[in-house]
Amino acid sequence: MTAPIRILLQTTIPTIEDDWHIGRFAMLRDMLAGLRDTDGAPLTHVTARDRDSASGPDAVLSTLDMSDYDQLWLFAVDTGEGLDDEDCAAISRFRKKGGGLMVTRDHMDLGSSVCTLGSVGDAHYFHSRNPEPDADRHCIDDSGTPAILWPNYHSGANGDFQDIEIVGEPIPS
Q1: Is the peptide bond between 42 and the residue preceding it cis, with omega within 30 degrees of 0?
Q2: What sections of 1-158 are H helices per DSSP?
Q3: Strands 71-75 and 100-104
Q4: Whole-prediction pTM
Q5: How many Cβ atoms from other residues are within 10 Å of residue 31's Cβ?
Q6: Tell me: the pLDDT tens digits for 27-53?
Q7: E strands within the chain?
Q8: Across the beta sheet with 100-104, what order do the strands follow?
Q9: 47 in helix, strand or coil?
Q10: Which letter does DSSP use for residue 78 in this model?
Q11: What is the distance between the alpha carbons of residues 36 and 2, in angstroms, rounded to a whole number?
């Protein structure tokens, strides 16, 4: 039997009821935690948490490289101050040791604290930090929410899904 993959689902904000706290990702947590092998043994062990404070190092992120987690799934939902220097250093060490890292964020500057994650942050464009280099993409693409500026790669209303069409031949598994 293979040991379950240890996944940390983590937001970059403390728990705020009317914000993107970790509870909003409960369906993902439950789906991951429910994965089983053919014998019914769990494939994952999932910990889901928010930052423990709005400032300073987070107790878990700042020591991530010393933890037994295999993967960090980071939901960057802050407005720019969601990661402390100690958090970033530990995340970088975790990654260098072979830890898996999935980083996601949202529109405009939401989640821009990921800019402090070195090359990982360099892959993310924001409105005010690390702006999209293609000036032609500096435009509002969602006429339904004109207060949300670029980047905002509109995918539908919150809770909606997108139809996906496979183009070409699927890659063999």
Answers
A1: no
A2: 26-33, 85-96, 119-122
A3: parallel
A4: 0.81
A5: 11
A6: 999 999 999 999 999 999 999 999 999
A7: 5-11, 44-49, 71-75, 100-104
A8: 44-49, 5-11, 71-75, 100-104
A9: strand
A10: S
A11: 11
Asked whether 113 and 77 are in contact (CB, 8 A), the reply is no
Residue showing tokens 């890292």: 101
138 CB-near residues (< 8 Å, 6+ apart): 131, 132, 150
Which of the four pLDDT bands, split at 50, 70 and 90, describes residue 153? low
Q: Which of 104, 122, 97, 108 is nearest to 151 (CA)?
A: 108
**Joined tokens for residue 114:** 């990921």
Higher pLDDT, 11 or 78: 11
Check residue 26 and report its DSSP letter: H
Instruction: Give the whole-angstrom CA distance, residue 106 versus residue 51.
Output: 18
Closest CA to 10 of 79, 93, 113, 102: 102
d(CA 48, CA 33): 10
Give dist(CA 152, CA 108) in Å, integer.
Answer: 6
- pLDDT tens digit string along 69-111? 999 999 999 888 889 999 999 999 999 999 999 988 777 767 7
